Amino acid sequence: MEKMVNSKRNILIFDKYDQISDFAVKKWEEISRDAIKSKDFFAVALSGGKTPAGFYEKLSNCRKGFYWNKTHLFLVDEHFVPFDHEESNYQMIKHHLLDSLRIPMENFHSISTQEDTPEKSSENYQKQLKDFFQLKAGEIPTFDLVMLGIGEDGHIASLFPRTSSLRESGPLVVAVSLNRVKNKRISITLPVINNAKNIIFLVSGYDKAQVIKEILEEKNMMLPASRVDPEKGQVFFLMDKKAASLLSSRYV
Ligand code: 6PG
Fold first, then answer.
1. Domains in the chain and their CATH numbers?
2. How far is CA 102 from the centre of its chain?
3. What is the pLDDT of residue 252?
């Protein structure tokens, strides 16, 4: 089932979504155990979207071997909408994960959207990251794990194809405002993603098959997902057979 394409890109194809989330839960346990052993906390950035909902629900039942009081949850992006809005990533994660998990509230680092503008929100979130990771000027945070989804257009977090936010190399967080995208957004930038120790993509369904082929086989570098290439980390593409259905047989 597993196919190594290069030393840091692991492509795993599963029959069903349920197996993807089982594998992701196992990986989470392993990565968090190592992180806590070496520095006494585990920092993970979570994505919104529909795909991770089942995984978050599974995770919300995990107790033994999961050190929630030493786990710090961040968001990879947020929609600039109120917290109780149906498109708020905070709301989605609260509903599927936090509500049934006993995690200290201060361990959940949401992106505030109460500010007047997404720019102000992104500045505040950047400050939160700098404070938590105790960064000096020019330093980039190192997440133990970044969880990502992939849009049909190849976007990750709120970094969309052919946009300046994709080229940002200075800020850790950007405000994204595009006519073609519903809601203004706040997103961590590519350098932050690529500085993570582990990146897990969760991808499911036939509607992702074309973009998966463009990322993995055609290596279309215009797609933000193709630019995920952590210098020191590992990448895991966890996908179901539907999402992998257009890949050539060397993967499946
Ligand atoms: C968001 C996400 C976004 C998402 C992709 C895939 O806030 O919407 O963080 O990047 O992961 O759009 O979404 P699905 O899982 O719903 O396909």
1. 27-233 (3.40.50.1360)
2. 22
3. 63
Of residues 204, 186, 171, the one with CA closest to residue 55:
204
pLDDT at position 195, please? Answer: 97
Burial (CB count within 10 angstroms: exposed 0-12, middle 13-18, buried 19+), residue 199 = buried
What's the CA-to-centroid distance between 130 and ligand 1, angstroms?
25
**Helices marked H in 62-187 — which ranges?**
89-96, 118-132
Count the neighbouring beta carbons within 10 Å of the beta carbon of residue 213: 18
251 Cα to the center of ligand 1, angstroms: 24
The pairing of strands 234-240 and 9-14 is parallel
* pLDDT on residue 204: 98
Q: What is the percentage of the chain residues whose pLDDT exceeds 90? A: 89
Cβ atoms of residues 229 and 199 within 8 Å: no
Average pLDDT, the chain: 94
SS3 142: coil
How many residues belong to the chain? 252
From the CA of 148, give the closest atom in ligand 1.
11
How many Å lie between the centroid of ligand 1 and the Cα of residue 247? Answer: 22
